[in-house]
What does this fold into?
Amino acid sequence: MIINKQVIGELRKEYGDAFYLLDSEQYRNNFIELRDTFRKIYPNFNIAYSYKTNYTPKFCKIVNELGGYAEVVSEMELEIALRVGVEPKRIIWNGPIKNAQKLEEFLVAGGTDNIDSVEEIEVVKGIAERHPDKVLNLGIRCNYDVQDDVLSRFGFDVDSEDFKQVLEFVTTTRNVHFINFQCHFAKRQIEYWPARANGMVELIDRLGIIPERIDIGGGLFGKMADSLKAQFKNEIPDYQAYADAAATVFAEYFKNKEMKPELLIEPGSAVVGDCMRFVGTVKTIKCVRGKWMATVLGSQKNISMTGINPPMEVIAMGGEQKEYENLDFVGFTCIEGDVLYNNYNGKLAHEDSIVISNCGSYSLVMKPPFILPNFPVLDICGEGVEVIKRGEVFDDLFHTFTF
It folds into this structure.
């Protein structure tokens, strides 16, 4: 993807002074590289892409084209998967709360539900009773200690009576197919991944049950610029490090076993993090009590990064640039903390563009309708410009209100 003064100038004329650039080629490459890295160690492996991280339909379509699963956590995300053509059998529904009616439709159609609570057991029992002729694909979300100092709120404590209850239900109900164990842990650091994998292996070994699939969740760092890596205390693992830490555990455990279940992970940031850029425009430059600030059409809410300086490039657009020291790029909102980049040193002019990279993760999906509607999303990987999402307008946000 080439980004320069000419490209940005042409895009500005058509789409305005702020927009996202989606990199579909990079996304496809990331998905294949991550998948194949794990498969070299444990061949029966696949990816269930985390829709919540970035549910842009084009990304979701690419996952489906490449044979991956859709991992969703709400009826909204389920609808996205269905609309982009994902078959229910390729959709995995996680999450602590599920719409009962949509869940029933989903299970009857062949989707997989990972049960998260005893209350959900009762809902699913009712569905099984109402559809005795349908086989329901059910899994269990498992919770155990991986020594990450986080008490996760997701899944069943594998040493609890509730876990015994859900296990009995999914393994003894006539029209239930117990399809997988699943877990989710928050921290991305590599040192917790062997414990995640070993915990699942120990559970399987203890129970003497090998499901069709084993899903060890998401929580992986993605690719990022060196300038961004340097701001983290710990080393940022690559795909190979995660595969060595987790896939090796399963390859060793199932080495001499006839059954080798499908191993899944649920990455989001690891595949999409470096696949979007945000382009904003400098609208004002001023000095307040000795501090230089450049206000940008764009916001911290557009990049979903706080406390760090994102990878950023200034594109000179023809104005007379001046040299600045310790200048902060700030957003269009009326929040003092809306800072996109701290202490920039370099040249800058009014109407220059800033291009912020590594903002594909939790940016577009978490931008609130605050102060301004969101900006367009464009893909310029091909010969022309593909409008992935048009810029939002007033009626997009306010048609549900009564004036």
